[in-house]
Amino acid sequence: MGFFDFGTIFFLIAAVVIFFQLRNVLGRRTGSERPPFDPYSAARTDKDATQKPENVVSLPRKRLPGEPAPADAYTAIDAFAKPDTDLNKGLRAIKDNDPSFDPKGFIDGAKMAYEMIVMAYADGDRKTLKNLLSREVFDGFVAAIGEREAKSEKIQSSFVGIDKADIVSAEMKGGEAHVTLRIISELISATRDKAGTVIDGDPETVAEVKDVWTFARDTRSRDPNWKLVATEEED
User: Which SMART domains match (predicted)?
Assistant: First the structure.
């Protein structure tokens, strides 16, 4: 067994004293200490506080019966159709059942649908028509296409554009919204028989076409798409 010299014993005692002094000052928990800092959890917390979840989308909520409309709910409708008219009342009724409804936006969509339907009918494109027409209208279009194909007739058609599209009536029928438009378009169209002879229309003349089309959508459905439910050609 070895012996410690005086210097070694002195430093040992001094170390023990310092240890107990530091323990008295730093080693006690008071309950108010901050938890250890974790840079990863801190980064996640800061990000979560400032970033909204990407998969959360706020959708317009349908008003409950008797619930008053917001002050600006009908601003776009009143600017589009004179207040207290039948058209204004019909558009307001649709807005009550479909808060996302906007008359100008509807017309833009209807114009696109009009061109697609006209060209799909000329091309015999049943798939496109099925997505844009109600069952009854689709059956009528398909029957006409089948008749044409049976005779080996073809429609040669070029869509020039839409001169005018106006909403002429709007109403709710149960839970279904109905909007009728008067559409004036320009079209070059000719029907040729099996031999290629023109039997209807003119392949070189732009013709003015006047249609009255009605689109409908079930406002109780999650499907936002409108479908063509009635067609009428103006003289």
Answer: Tim44
**47-82 in b/e burial notation, b at 16+ Cβ within 10 A?**
eeeeeeeeeeeeeeeeeeeeeeeeeeebebbeebbe
Domain 74-234 matching CATH 3.10.129.10: the answer reads: no
Q: Which residue has the tokens 């936006």?
A: 105
Beta bridge partners of 167: 181
**Would residue 211 be called left, alpha or beta, if left means φ above 0 and alpha means ψ between -120 and 50 degrees?**
beta
- Is the pTM for the entire model greater than 0.85? no
DSSP 3-state assignment of 143?
Answer: helix
Strand partners, 217: 177
How many CA atoms, within 13 angstroms, populate the side-chain half-sphere of residue 22? Answer: 6
Residues 148-179: pLDDT tens digits? 999 999 999 999 999 999 999 999 999 999 99
Q: What is the Cα–Cα distance from 172 to 94, expressed in whole angstroms?
A: 6
Task: Quick: pLDDT tens for 191-202.
Answer: 999 999 999 999
